[in-house]
């Protein structure tokens, strides 16, 4: 991340701009060619008025009457009007495109997340990159600023070129005038060069200072986070009230915001920086505008220019100087913009890091897929401790396996490895004797229907949510929902009702228990040869829990099933039980077999919970 | 919704900035002045040059006059630029301050209100009003008012200039400007009709976007191959916004074309009139340039005035949302007549004839509910999901007020206590885990670090079994929690966090202990430990334990089974088992698998 903070060489800046341009072409290749047309009109339209004034002034000095003058004026006005009409339509069209580009850009990063491995999504590196990207979008520095900069650049260049072309007569006059004019020209050129250099330097220092602060420094304040519900939701208001923590929350939000050192940096340096650079830029505009008139006036005094030409040439000269300063300014802003996009560009370049096998999965109607863990060890990236250590385990086809163990014993990790959300560090997982890494990842994923402990139910239509797709078999979805225990609720709501209210305001609110049942229905609808359930009853009351237990056979339906739960009662309806302790598989067998070993972990776990339910229990 | 006038909403921010950072106002004033004179100076300059040349002025005079005018231009440009750029960060930074204030405001509302759908909606509308960058109410109000006033002044200055020349031409221009104004008004109104549709489209856009990148959902997205589905939703969201933009902007372009036609009419008339005057020698060529410049400037001022007005309307609308929330009535300060300290502890709590409903439309969750929790009694509250257990707890802790009936503490109506004194009675562990990116000590005490009592803190941590976890990680009370602020931040697993919350309740040491599902995320051994320690935790306290794990009832003096807001059974475990009712059934269902002979 730190390489985003350092200064860039010219070559790197050029490369950044090139990449940004490539991305822009990917988003909308026709936007800028069309924009050029618009800017061309914008660059030329002002000269109509300018040259009209010049013509009229000269005509007036020559004492012309009104009619011939009007015969020039009216066609020019009509022509300008016609072009303006076209311009208006074009501008509207471009604006629509610009907004859509912005929208697509907003989605690029999120869509990229879909193509990454889960291990990447879950890694601190990606989280850091996402934070940096979000930060780089602050102060309006998103793609809109790239578009703005691109337009600014085109406009400046066209202004400069059109001013130079139309002002050649002034240039000719300058070359014939050797005395005062030449001297004045030199002064102006010097001014111009200084202006450009200063503008560029200033923008660089300012932007670098602001956009690339050391990470962490600006995060001691939680106004935005908490107000947005990050890390504190309205439900936490219960604790805030009962524990009287208003003062604490105030300390880290509004009071921290008023902290002078933080605010000083944020506000005063920013104000001074942006105000200073804006002051400088505007002073230059004023100076150049004034200077062009002085130069032209001097030329006119020397008799090199007519009265009419004074107006038009001063305009050209002014536009030329301002254009030149703008080009320099646009260049520095463009490279800033491109620099700001670096984090996004790097992110979009990321490749999946897992080995992508090519082997197609054998289609089996009988669902007899045999999976085996062979001496598997795994550590989470950046962690010293093994989450799983030398695990060998064979899943018997069509059997139900319970996995039990204390918090942190590796149960959920096993599921993640089995689904190939992670790859093992050592050992291998075999499907029909072949390392699972060799299969096409997507096809392999089809083998599993999982209900994770922290499953997500999306706020879209119920039917689509269960099928995880826009197209689905309505009757089958209904059957699954019914089997998952949502039969009663299903009568009042159709498959087209939206869940929750984030997407549709009229969506229906569902409880945690109901969400768990929808997740179960989703797993059933998938009809995979393996069903994996991780704590599916944590939020359920005893009756619903019992329904899930008794319905488990129906859910599993002859498929290979794995059931993780802290409720050891669930072991009773599983064929085999695998007991994990600190990342290792310590026991494997049926309930009766494991209970026969009073020294075993299972015996301890079972009794810790069962003692309270047994008739002879005495307090 | 109360409606404040546009002016009142402008003044709201004037007052706000005067209080928080008055420099914004001074900068704005300066920018308006410089901005109003500047356009006039720009069109005056060519006239000055032409007049000098026509008068045949000498080189020294030309240089001094034009030189000083250039200086004036530089000053005007410079002042405008410096003030415009200079205040940008200042007023933008204020948005964070406002967000903080909004957040704190939500903590001062009665909790039942915070929870309601209406207040939630109001909150997010208020939040959006200050979250939109340059389009947020606080920023837009400033830029729009500056633009409006500046351009009004310019307009007046130009009218006055042309007024010197002729009243007729001025009147004509004013009439055309009025027509322009009417056109713009229609356009603004049209845009406002799209507001709802745009808000909905934005909601869809943001909702789908946040889900695509959601880290928790990433597992499900992959295992259920949801990418094609989500991409469909994404395309629909983008298209929805694109077609709205298309509609809006083609209409806008249509209005612009009408306006351009008006401008053409104005230009033709102005040129004809001024040419007539100039060709007859009634005005100098310099004057001609000045007047033509002024006429041409007109339409841009009218347009900017209209844009300013439209922006102010938009800002005022957002301001309204902000004000509505900031002016919500806060929790009443009950001047407690009865000091809680005088109560004998642990207290006895009675629900007398309590009724409560979330809103008047729905049927009450509790209706004429009666329950007495005796001093020092350990009560277990059980029932299926949705039986009303959580509502009861919120009523108990004073997060909700009953619609009818009373809640008595040692026979005294709880309204007799101040809010603080009442809350002080309770140590509660709620279902949602709240850990904040602050220090361990602050998370434990929920008070600022300087108020944390280190000795008591370690005692509580010890008692809840968290101290050893902290020691193992080398953490102490001043260690920051979560990875948010520092890379070294302390992260706790689900089970550890639940123990930490217990420690929080123990640190507070309220005479009433309420535990709502404190073992849901714990493994069998940890669960059993909590049960065993529960007796120690609740010693000398009135305690309420809610759990789906019916084993927990074994440690309670009395079990209350709730169903649809009513007490259906009450008694000790043995009594209820003998009775063979709903509780016995529930217990039987859960214990079935644990019995030695299945």
Annotation keywords:
heterodimer, A: 619 residues, alpha/beta, ABC transporter transmembrane region fold, Rossmann fold, 3 domains, six-stranded mixed β-sheet, four-stranded antiparallel β-sheet, 22 helices, 60% helix, B: 598 residues, 9% strand, elongated
Provide an overview of this structure:
The complex is a heterodimer of chains A (619) and B (598). Chain A is α/β, with parallel strands linked by helices and 619 residues long. Chain A has 3 domains: 12-220 and 259-349, Up-down Bundle (ABC transporter transmembrane region fold); 371-447 and 529-613, Rossmann fold (3-Layer(aba) Sandwich), CATH 3.40.50; 457-527, no CATH class. Chain A is built from 22 helices and 10 strands. In chain A, strands 6-7-8-3-9-10 form a 6-stranded mixed β-sheet, with helices on both faces. Chain A has a 4-stranded antiparallel β-sheet with strand order 2-1-4-5, covered by helices on one side. In chain A, helix 2 (31-61) runs antiparallel to helix 3, helix 6 (143-166) runs antiparallel to helix 13 and helix 18 (474-492) runs antiparallel to helix 19 (512-526). By secondary structure, chain B is α/β, with parallel strands linked by helices. Among the domains of chain B are: 6-192 and 253-326, ABC transporter transmembrane region fold (Up-down Bundle), CATH 1.20.1560.10; 434-509, no CATH class. Helices cover 63% and strands 9% of the residues of chain B. Chain B is built from 20 helices and 10 strands. A 6-stranded mixed β-sheet of chain B has the order 6-7-8-3-9-10. In chain B, strands 2-1-4-5 form a 4-stranded antiparallel β-sheet, covered by helices on one side. In chain B, a hairpin with a 2-residue loop joins strand 4 and strand 5. In chain B, helix 2 (23-55) runs parallel beside helix 6 (137-165), helix 2 (23-55) runs antiparallel to helix 11 (285-326) and helix 7 (167-193) runs antiparallel to helix 10. In chain B, 46% of the residues are buried. Chains A and B meet through helix 2, helix 3, helix 9, helix 10 and helix 11 of A and helix 2, helix 3, helix 4, helix 5 and helix 8 of B.
């Amino acid at each position: 991340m730190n390489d985003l903070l350092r200064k860039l060489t010219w070559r790197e800046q050029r490369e950044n701009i090139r990449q940004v341009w490539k991305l822009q072409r990917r988003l909308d290749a026709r936007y800028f060619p069309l924009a050029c047309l618009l800017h061309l009109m914008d660059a030329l339209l002002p000269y109509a008025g300018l040259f009209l004034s010049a013509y009229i002034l000269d005509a007036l000095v020559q004492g012309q009457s009104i009619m011939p003058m009007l015969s020039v004026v009216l066609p020019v006005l009509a022509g300008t009007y016609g072009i303006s009409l076209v311009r208006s339509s074009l501008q509207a069209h471009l604006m629509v495109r610009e907004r859509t580009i912005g929208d697509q850009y907003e989605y690029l990063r999120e869509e990229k997340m879909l193509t990454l491995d889960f291990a990447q999504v879950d890694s601190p590196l990606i989280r850091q990159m996402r934070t940096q990207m979000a930060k780089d979008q602050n102060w309006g520095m998103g793609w809109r600023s790239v578009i703005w900069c691109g337009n600014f650049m085109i406009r400046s260049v066209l202004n400069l070129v059109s001013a130079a072309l139309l002002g050649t007569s002034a240039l000719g006059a300058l070359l014939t005038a050797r005395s005062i004019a030449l001297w004045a020209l030199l002064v102006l050129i010097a001014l111009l060069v200084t202006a450009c250099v200063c503008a560029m330097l200033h923008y660089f220092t300012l932007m670098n200072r602001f956009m690339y602060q050391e990470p962490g420094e600006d995060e001691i304040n939680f106004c935005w986070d908490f107000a947005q519900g990050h890390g504190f939701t309205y439900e936490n208001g219960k604790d805030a009230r009962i524990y009287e923590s208003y003062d604490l929350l105030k300390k880290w939000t509004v009071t921290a915001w008023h902290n002078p050192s933080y605010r000083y940096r944020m506000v005063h340096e920013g104000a001074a920086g942006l105000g200073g650079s804006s002051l400088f830029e505007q002073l230059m505009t004023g100076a150049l505008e004034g200077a062009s008139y002085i130069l032209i006036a001097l030329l006119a005094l020397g008799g090199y220019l007519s009265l009419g030409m004074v107006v038009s040439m001063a305009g050209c000269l002014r536009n030329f100087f301002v254009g030149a300063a703008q080009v320099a300014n646009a260049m520095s802003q463009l490279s800033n913009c491109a620099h700001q996009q670096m984090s996004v560009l790097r992110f979009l370049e990321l490749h999946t890091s897992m080995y992508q096998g090519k082997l197609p999965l054998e289609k089996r109607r009988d669902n007899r897929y045999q999976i085996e863990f062979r001496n598997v060890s795994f550590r989470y990236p950046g962690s010293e401790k093994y989450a799983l250590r030398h695990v060998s385990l064979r899943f018997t086809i069509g059997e139900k396996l319970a996995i039990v163990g204390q918090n942190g014993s590796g149960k959920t990790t096993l599921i993640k490895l089995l689904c190939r959300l992670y790859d093992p560090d050592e050992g291998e997982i075999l499907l029909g004797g072949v390392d699972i890494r060799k299969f096409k990842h997507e096809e392999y994923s089809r083998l599993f229907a999982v209900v994770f402990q922290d499953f997500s139910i999306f706020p879209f239509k119920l039917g689509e949510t269960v099928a995880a797709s826009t197209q689905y078999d309505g009757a089958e979805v209904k059957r699954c929902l019914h089997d998952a225990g949502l039969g009663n609720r299903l009568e009042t709501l159709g498959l087209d009702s939206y869940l929750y209210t984030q997407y549709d305001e009229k969506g229906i609110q569902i409880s945690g228990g109901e969400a768990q049942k929808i997740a179960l229905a989703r797993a059933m609808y998938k009809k995979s040869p393996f069903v994996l359930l991780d704590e599916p009853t944590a939020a359920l009351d005893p009756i619903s829990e019992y329904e899930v237990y008794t319905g488990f056979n129906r859910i599993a339906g002859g498929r290979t099933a794995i059931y993780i739960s802290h409720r050891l009662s669930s072991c009773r309806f599983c064929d085999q039980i695998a007991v994990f302790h600190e990342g290792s598989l310590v026991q494997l067998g049926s309930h009766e077999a494991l209970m026969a070993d009073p020294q075993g972990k299972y015996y301890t776990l079972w009794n810790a919970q069962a003692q309270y339910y047994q008739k002879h229990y005495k307090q | 919704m109360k409606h404040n006038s546009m002016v009142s909403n402008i003044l709201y921010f004037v007052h706000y900035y005067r209080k928080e950072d008055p420099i914004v106002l001074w900068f704005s004033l300066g920018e308006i002045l410089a901005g109003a004179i500047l356009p006039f100076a720009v069109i005056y300059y060519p006239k000055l040059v032409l007049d000098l040349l026509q008068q045949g002025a000498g080189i020294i005079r030309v240089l001094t006059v034009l030189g000083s005018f250039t200086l004036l231009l530089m000053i005007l440009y410079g002042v405008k630029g410096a003030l415009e750029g200079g205040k940008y960060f200042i007023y933008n930074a204020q948005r964070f301050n406002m967000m903080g204030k909004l957040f704190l405001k939500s903590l001062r509302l009665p909790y039942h209100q915070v929870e309601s759908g209406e207040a939630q909606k109001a909150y997010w509308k208020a939040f959006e009003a200050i979250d939109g960058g340059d389009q947020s109410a606080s920023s837009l109000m400033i830029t729009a008012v500056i633009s409006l006033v500046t351009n009004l002044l310019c307009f007046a200055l130009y009218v006055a200039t042309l007024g010197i020349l002729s009243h007729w031409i001025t009147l004509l221009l004013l009439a055309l400007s009025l027509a322009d104004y009417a056109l713009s008004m229609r356009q603004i109104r049209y845009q406002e009709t799209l507001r709802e549709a745009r808000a909905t489209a934005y909601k869809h856009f943001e909702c789908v976007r946040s889900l695509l990148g959601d880290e928790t959902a990433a597992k499900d997205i992959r295992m259920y191959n949801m990418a094609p589905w989500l991409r469909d939703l994404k395309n629909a969201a983008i298209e929805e916004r694109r077609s709205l933009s298309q509609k809006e902007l083609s209409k806008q372009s249509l209005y612009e074309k009408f306006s351009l036609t008006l401008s053409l009419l104005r230009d033709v008339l102005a040129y004809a009139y001024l040419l007539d005057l100039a060709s007859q020698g009634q005005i100098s060529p310099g004057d001609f340039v000045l007047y033509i410049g002024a006429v041409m400037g007109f339409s841009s001022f009218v347009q900017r005035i209209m844009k300013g007005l439209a922006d102010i309307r938009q800002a005022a609308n957002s301001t309204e949302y902000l004000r509505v929330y900031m002016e919500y009535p806060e929790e009443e300060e009950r001047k407690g007549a009865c000091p809680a300290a005088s109560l004998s502890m642990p207290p006895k709590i009675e629900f007398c004839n309590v009724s409560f409903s979330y809103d008047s439309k729905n049927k009450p969750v509790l209706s004429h509910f009666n329950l007495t929790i005796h001093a020092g009694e350990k009560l277990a509250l059980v029932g299926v999901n949705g039986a009303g257990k959580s509502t009861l707890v919120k009523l108990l802790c004073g997060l909700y007020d009953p619609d009818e009936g009373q809640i008595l503490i040692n026979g005294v109506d709880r309204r007799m206590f101040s809010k603080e004194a009442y809350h002080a009675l309770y140590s509660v562990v709620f279902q949602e885990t709240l850990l904040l990116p602050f220090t361990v000590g602050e998370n434990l005490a929920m008070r600022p670090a300087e108020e944390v009592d280190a000795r008591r803190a370690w005692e509580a941590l010890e008692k809840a079994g968290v101290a050893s976890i902290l020691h193992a990680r080398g953490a102490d009370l001043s260690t920051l929690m979560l990875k948010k602020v520092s890379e070294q931040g302390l992260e706790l697993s689900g089970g550890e966090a639940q123990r930490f919350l217990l420690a929080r309740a123990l640190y507070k040491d309220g005479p009433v202990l309420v535990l709502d599902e404190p073992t849901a995320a714990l493994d069998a051994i940890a669960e059993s430990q909590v049960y065993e320690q529960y007796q120690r935790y609740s010693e000398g306290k009135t305690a309420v334990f809610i759990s789906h794990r019916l084993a927990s009832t074994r440690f309670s003096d009395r079990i209350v089974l709730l169903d649809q807001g009513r007490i259906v059974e009450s008694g000790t475990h043995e009594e209820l088992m003998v009775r063979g009712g709903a509780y016995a059934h529930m217990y039987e269902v859960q214990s079935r698998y644990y019995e030695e002979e299945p």
